[in-house]
Amino acid sequence: MPAQSEIDQSPAALAKIVRDEALRIGFDLVGISPAVTPSGFDHLQRWLGQNYEGEMQYMRRREAAYEHPDGVLPGAKSVIVTALNYHATGKADGSNADTTVSSANGRVASYANGTADYHDVIRKMLKQLGAVLHEVVPGSRTRPVVDTAPLLERDFAKIAGLGWFGKNTMLINKHAGSWLFLGVLLTDVELQPDAPHDTSHCGTCTRCLDACPTDAFAAPYVLDARKCISYLTIELRDEPIPTELREGMQNWIFGCDVCQDVCPWNRKASDTSVPEFQPAADLSPLDLQWLLSLSDDEFRKRFHKTPFDRPGRSGLLRNAAIAAGNSGDASLILLLIQCLNDEAAIVRGAAAWALGKLGGARARDALQKRETVETDTGVQSEIESALNFRLEP
Ligand code: SF4
Ligand code: SF4
C-alpha cells in the first residue's frame, strides 16, 4: 500500500480500496450504502405493529435506534455491507450431507451447523477491514455489526446493490443465492456508494410461501415470526411450542432451511469457501438419542459459546422431544419417558406430547405414572391431553 500521504482520499478512491480489501479478506460480496434512514424502517414499524416479533422484545425496545445508523455509530456516513456464503452440501468427513435424515435424527439449519460461531468469524474479518480503513484514513472510526446491533442489515444490503428481498424475506443475490451471512462495517468516512438493487426477480414464483411447513408467511415478503420454526426453536426459549405448530416442525430442532431450499435462485449457489462453515460431523444431522439424554454438563461442554446457547439445554431438549414425537420412531420412547422426569417443565410437556403421538402401552403407563406426581399445571394438561386424545386404551 502506498504511503498514507499519497493515497487519494476521494470517496471514489476510498470506496475502491474498501471493496478490494473486502474481497481480498475473503468476503464473497461487498457493497457500499450511504448512512441513511432505510425505507425498510417503515416496514419494521408496521411489522412490530402487528406483533409479529413475538418474544423478540429487544426489537421493540430498540425500535427508534433502527431508524438511522447514527443509532449504532454516531456520525456514521457510510455502511459497508459484506456477505459470506455459508452453505455447504458436504459433511465434515467429506461425504454428502444427509438431507433426507433418518427418523432418529434432528436437523439443524445450515447457518448454524458449522464448526465455529459465524459471529466470531465475520467480526474478525470486519475488524481486518476496519484496520485497513483506519490506516488509510487516520482518525476514522468504524464499528463492525453482525446481527447484534439495531441495524436493518438486509435493507442496507439492498441499497448497497447486493440483491433484492425475496418473498421469503431473505436477501437474494442473482449469482450467490440467499445462503448469505451479512456483516456490516459502519464508518464515519464518506465512501462513494454503489447503485441500489431496485428490481425484484421473484416473478410469479410462490415456492417458498407454499413450502413453509408452519404457514409462517402472513403475505409475500411478510413473515409472522411467531409461526416460524427458526423463532420457535431458538427465540421462544422458556415456553412450550404452540400445539398447532408442533407437527409442522417435523424434525427441525434448531432453525429451518425450507424456504431457502426450495428457492430456484439457490440451485446454482456454490458451496462456502470458509472452512469453519463446513458442517460439524455431530450436527449434520444431530442424533436425537444423544440429545434426549443430554445432561447440563454435556450441554455446556458441547454447546457453550455456540448459537445453541440461545435456546439452552431445556429449549434444545424440548425441540428434540417434538422431533421425536414427529419421527414415528418407537425406539425413542424410553428416552422420552426419562424426559418426563426432566427438571424443566417445557421438556416434560414436550415429552408428554411426543409420547402421546408415538402411542403404545409403555407410553400410556409412563404418562399415567407421571400424572400422579406432576405439579406443573401446563405439564398436567399436556399429559391429560396425550392420555385423553391419543392414548385411549
Ligand atoms: Fe417457514 Fe421455515 Fe422459512 Fe420459517 S424458515 S418461514 S418455518 S420455511
Ligand atoms: Fe422468490 Fe420463489 Fe425464491 Fe420465494 S422461492 S424467494 S418467491 S424466487
Task: Quickly describe the structure.
With 393 residues, the chain is α+β, with helices and mostly antiparallel strands. The chain has helices at residues 11-25, 40-49, 57-61, 118-136, 153-159, 207-211, 229-235, 243-246, 258-261, 288-292, 296-303, 312-327, 333-339, 345-358, 361-371, 377-389, and strands at 29-34, 78-85, 105-108, 142-145, 164-165, 171-172, 180-187, 217-219, 222-223, 252-254, 286-287.
Structure, described:
The protein has 393 residues and is an alpha+beta fold. The chain has 16 helices and eleven strands. It has helices at residues 11-25, 40-49, 57-61, 118-136, 153-159, 207-211, 229-235, 243-246, 258-261, 288-292, 296-303, 312-327, 333-339, 345-358, 361-371, 377-389; strands spanning 29-34, 78-85, 105-108, 142-145, 164-165, 171-172, 180-187, 217-219, 222-223, 252-254, 286-287. The protein has a four-stranded antiparallel sheet, sandwiched between helices. A three-stranded mixed sheet has the order 10-3-11. A two-stranded antiparallel sheet has the order 5-6. Strand 8 (217-219) and strand 9 form a beta hairpin. Helix 12 runs parallel beside helix 14, helix 13 (333-339) packs antiparallel against helix 14 (345-358) and helix 15 (361-371) packs antiparallel against helix 16 (377-389). It is elongated, with a radius of gyration of 23 Å. Bound molecules: iron/sulfur cluster (2 copies). One iron/sulfur cluster (SF4) binds next to helix 7 and helix 9.
